[in-house]
Amino acid sequence: MVTTEHGFSLVELMIAIAIMSILMVMGAPLTRAWVANAHIAHAQNVLAEGYATLRALSLKNPLGVKGDQEVASLTINGKLLSAGYRDAYGTVNMVWQGNIDTDVTLALTEAGCANTLRLNNLGMALDSRCLAYKISSAGGRDESSTLQ
User: Name one Pfam family in it (predicted).
Assistant: First the structure.
């Protein structure tokens, strides 16, 4: 009577585990870069949404500001972006807020802007240098561009 054995030998099992380990070690950096790039893309989308809201608010001009004066502003404060306007008493009225991921850094590249973009009643930046920004994340591809 002949018996056949079923299953894997110890050598076959160890080879399979070694191959899986090599694939995981090679794939981990790719996954990390993919996640970082996805977070950068999310930050770009949040910034674009905030800028669109800011332009709409400045064109609406809730206080009837005339001339080349600030109507509305977008502020980047750490991981929080907020768009709003100051009323006649100096109180800030926020109309939009957005959050970016904790591992992402977003900043306006011009040092004089103090991470605040101000628009006039025509929806134009009071300082066009403040339209440039940089987004970075560890392991990802940094993104620098200009708001339009």
Answer: N_methyl
